[in-house]
Amino acid sequence: MNELIEAGKLHCANCGTPLEGEFCHHCGQSVHSVLKPVHHMLEDGMDMFLHVDGRIFHTVPPLFTRPGFLTLEYFGGRRQRYVAPFRLMFVLCLLAFFAFHLAVDWGVEQAESNMIQAQLVTRADAFADDDTASEVRNDLRERLRGLATARHALPAGMTGALETNERTLRRLANERLAALGAAPLPADFGATVAARPATTGAEGATAEDNERPKVDVSWLPGFANQRLTHLVGNVLTNVHDAFDQASTRDKRRAARARMITGVFSLLPQAMVVMIPVFALLLKLFYVFKRRLYMEHLIVALHSHAFLFLSLLLFGLVTLLAGWLEPHAAWASAGLGYAGSALLLWMPVYLLIMQKRIYHQGWPMTLLKYWCIGWCYFWLLLAVVAVVMLLGAGH
User: Fold this and answer.
1) What is the value of pTM for the model shown?
2) Could you tell me what percent of the chain has a pLDDT over 70?
């Protein structure tokens, strides 16, 4: 008679607990060894990628088109087929700010190119309407007076653009005088907007360095005042280098790149901090619903994930519209309308989401939606202002 022999059970190599599946129910360690051939590692990587990819396909469409659906699914315990809320929000946050970084860089380059072209057109025909030498001199004198007036309204480090304009105006005036057969201008003709000479102080610093503000808050420690002084100095230097037309174009680009990169490197961190604040606002305004703070945090994560997805799409649409504008204006205009529709869908989506999750009537939902939005707007504005200040001092 054949006897049934009980097969030996596998035990967890980490804690020794008998295993009932592929993972230890006591410590969570997998039964599979990490010491395996390379082709098995590639197979596991592809399996992980396809698994996450499938979850993305189940997560992103309802996130964008069905307000509150993912949150209600999460509350109902149906979570396996969807990307986790924090991971979803964080990935979309990084992608959105990356797209906006590209859009801002492109917009700044386009604005600078358009400004340069406009300045060249204006300067080229500055004295074209002057028919006599006296009209050219009077026109130049008035323009130089305007530059001299503007010079007093600018800080010491911003007068380079005025000097460039003065030299250009004098050159164009001399060219017009030569075309009219008149004598060129004397070297000291008209008012001058030359910058003040950089004098040296007692410690060898220039006048510009001596005029920079030094932060000295009495109740702050010395190292904090030093850091703030250094930050303010960096902000002034970056702003000066970015907008001083007397600087080289590469120097202006480098300064703008420093500021933009500094801002966009801090924005994702700031938004991660703002999400618990938004959840706290939901907790305060829906305190009688007796929901846990964790539930409000899930609502905040899905709300911000939708916002970042919308901003990502808006940034991509803006870039595509700008690229198509010289080639197909009609397609660019259509994408512009699509971008406007995205911006309109964002507040509507959040309102519908709030109504579906908290199950209150429309009057109370609208009132709380407005109050939460008003509070969050000013908090977000303050945080963005701090981020821009810190980013400009990068």
Assistant:
1) 0.69
2) 77
